[in-house]
Amino acid sequence: MLWSGWGDPAKAADLPEPIRTLLGDLLGVRPPRSEAATLGEVRLPPVALPAPVVDELRGLVGADHVRLDDETRVRHTRGKSTPDLLRMRAGDGSDAPDAVVLPACHDEVLAVLAACAAHRVAVVPFGGGTSVVGGLVASRRGFAGVIALDLARLDRLVSVDAESMVAELEPGMRAPRAERLLAAHGFTLGHFPQSFEYATLGGFAAARSSGQASAGHGRFDDMVVGMTVATPRGTLDLGRAPRSAAGPDLRQVMLGSEGAFGVITSLRLRVRPVPAERVYEGWRFASFTEGSAALRTLAQRDAAPTVLRLSDETETMIGLARPGEIGASPGGAGCLAITGYEGTSAEVSARRERATALLSELGGVPAGTEPGRAWEHGRYSAPYLRDALLAAGATVETLETAGFWSNLPRLYDAVRLSLSASLGSPLVMCHISHVYGTGASLYFTVVTAQTGDPLGQWEAAKRAANEAIARAGGTISHHHGVGRDHREAHAAEIGELGVEILRGVKDRLDPEGVLNPGVLLAAKEPAG
Ligand SMILES: Cc1cc2nc3c(=O)[nH]c(=O)nc-3n(C[C@H](O)[C@H](O)[C@H](O)COP(=O)(O)OP(=O)(O)OC[C@H]3O[C@@H](n4cnc5c(N)ncnc54)[C@H](O)[C@@H]3O)c2cc1C
Prior knowledge:
Elements: H1 17-27, H2 51-61, E1 66-67, H3 70-75, H4 82-89, E2 99-101, H5 106-119, E3 121-126, E4 145-150, E5 157-161, E6 166-169, H6 175-183, E7 187-188, H7 201-206, H8 214-217, H9 220-223, E8 224-231, E9 234-238, H10 250-254, E10 263-270, E11 272-273, E12 277-285, H11 288-300, E13 307-311, H12 313-318, E14 335-343, H13 345-361, E15 365-368, H14 370-378, H15 382-392, E16 394-404, H16 408-423, E17 427-435, E18 439-449, H17 454-471, H18 487-509
Parallel strand pairs: 2-4, 3-4
Antiparallel strand pairs: 1-2, 5-6, 6-10, 7-11, 8-9, 8-10, 12-14, 12-15, 13-14, 13-17, 16-18, 17-18
Helix pairs in contact: 2-5, 16-17
The chain binds flavin-adenine dinucleotide (FAD).
């Protein structure tokens, strides 16, 4: 993974000429004044962790698995939001952990947590490092140091219960490896977020991720039937049955806890047979309003395909639904929807037939399999474009929310208006990315010319968008999570009592407050 950008450097994308022209002519983008920093130029704070603590950690996980070198620290600094990348490109490594610790099993995680609690060392659980909400930056105040607890060595497929269709996997496993290992048993998770290539199973559970096939396979939190969690107070083992009436479901308390309540060390996940057939296709609608109504009807009549998304007019025009081909061919007028069917041949035919009849009735015009093929081909490539856009002097960032169908148009307008008001004349694109019978999520992509202070420029715009979401009755996140960036908006959303409940859980599980301080909940003021 590129330390200051996204993905495999060999796959770095150059900006197609039509996009360069669009940026200059439409948005007034000019090349930035300074070059991005090199890895060696990143300014890191000195290691604050006391030497005896480093020695103790080495004793717990092995000397090779406690790393203090600059490159490893840089590679564990923050996540992959645009502000994170802008800071790295500016050579700002001020949020680097003092050390990166790589435990190999649950017991080692427990031991590291106990040592960190005893010495007041903050612990940042680290999966794939793809957080886009500041989930990997701990408050240092009042702590003897900060470690990144990298879970990469917990990456085994522990067991497959083919009868129940449940697989136990460790949390540090990246999604492609999980799919490969499960495929050998004939199974898939069906979880394909855009960060698929790098994100881990633990990160998906901790941040309540949602993938591109959520209409058919559900969100990641729907897939979790059990988990083991290490906390400074001991172990939680949750989930003896798919559903239970034995009190509140503590699995739900840990899902979305973003490393602030404990470290997930094992996941029991619902799996499905590898689909024998996959068909992706495109549909055209005259407008976003008409297309949204069609998606709603599919979801409400239980006729949704496995993949279901709808780009608004601007996103369709730019062609963002097919990132691999942006600029190569015009996106066309109206709105493009992508529908995808996965399953046995009979399931695909039956679902496709039903959805096709409904979509045609609802004003959709079939666009054939070519747009679906282009979407499938480019589904993981858009993040690579972000690096090229940043280098060209444009800021590009995404944000997402969700709401009930009756409120979706208001939410859509509110976010677009707020981004336009704070950024001048940005390009604002949106798609419906996940659908339910009762509502949907809206995923916005914003492109704007960088000012002299791109970080300040985006932070102001993001603040305004958060306020607009709250005023329009949406949730602050459908699938990116809370992290530090959404902490205040999240507190406002759940109210004081809601925050107190979460605080109570945290205080019980993590009395010293060492787990991801400042993420999800404000860090406790140090005593004395
Ligand atoms: C280009 C790009 C595209 C993305 N696309 C999507 C998308 O389509 N859908 C989506 O849902 N999200 C998406 N994301 C957001 C991100 O990938 C998800 O939030 C993902 O769940 C994070 O997984 P990770 O392994 O990288 O976790 P990390 O970023 O390493 O961690 C995320 C949070 O979880 C905590 N954590 C990690 N592992 C554990 C553990 N084992 N136990 C306890 N806490 C833990 C961390 O401390 C942190 O707070 C995208 C991000 C990027 C950069």
